[in-house]
Amino acid sequence: MSKRALIVIDLQNDYFSGGKFELENIEAAADNAAHLLDAARQSGDLVVHVRHEFASADAPFFAPGSDGAAIHPSVQPRDGEAVVLKNAVNAFKGTDLKAILDDNGITDVTIAGAMSHMCVEGATRAAADYGYPVTVIHDAVATRALEFNGEVIPAAQVHAAAMAALGFAYATLQATDEYLENKV
């Protein structure tokens, strides 16, 4: 029998309206992540919150100790839930995330959060490389537009490309409703 963990990555104030690095569709992603949190808590799944802080106080966002680096109120950790502080894109790098999963006998990982093409992708690939079957809840993940070689790539395309890459070899992709339906 599998033992699942829900990992909620970087749903922090700076990504929301009025923050220093706003993402598109972040409110909808956070709302879906909140539904996932409720379900995980009810079923007794391990919940791990990941919070990013840059090492420098003059960081463009997620400055150490700032309100922007705090976890958004919609997905606040409860007492007893692990909070992993990271300083890199990959939530496993330089953190105790893998030890938390292993110490709790976790066999399967579900991921939600931000950003699609960065921290969600980094954690998903690392988790898969460590041998965990990974499910990414694609509508509980958000990102923003990017620019490459003078061309702006809309957030929806950035998100779709990131999810397509993860779905190709690293993770099962599901919508929140589909995941919650199958979880019952």
UniProtKB/TrEMBL annotation:
Lineage: superkingdom: Bacteria
Keywords (A to Z) from UniProt: Hydrolase
Lineage: Bacteria, Pseudomonadati, Pseudomonadota, Alphaproteobacteria, Hyphomicrobiales
Protein name: Nicotinamidase-related amidase
GO MF entries: hydrolase activity
InterPro entries according to UniProt: Isochorismatase-like_dom (IPR000868), Isochorismatase-like_hydrls (IPR050272), Isochorismatase-like_sf (IPR036380)
Location of the Isochorismatase-like domain: 5-148
Organism: Pseudochelatococcus contaminans
CDD domains attached to this UniProt entry: nicotinamidase_related
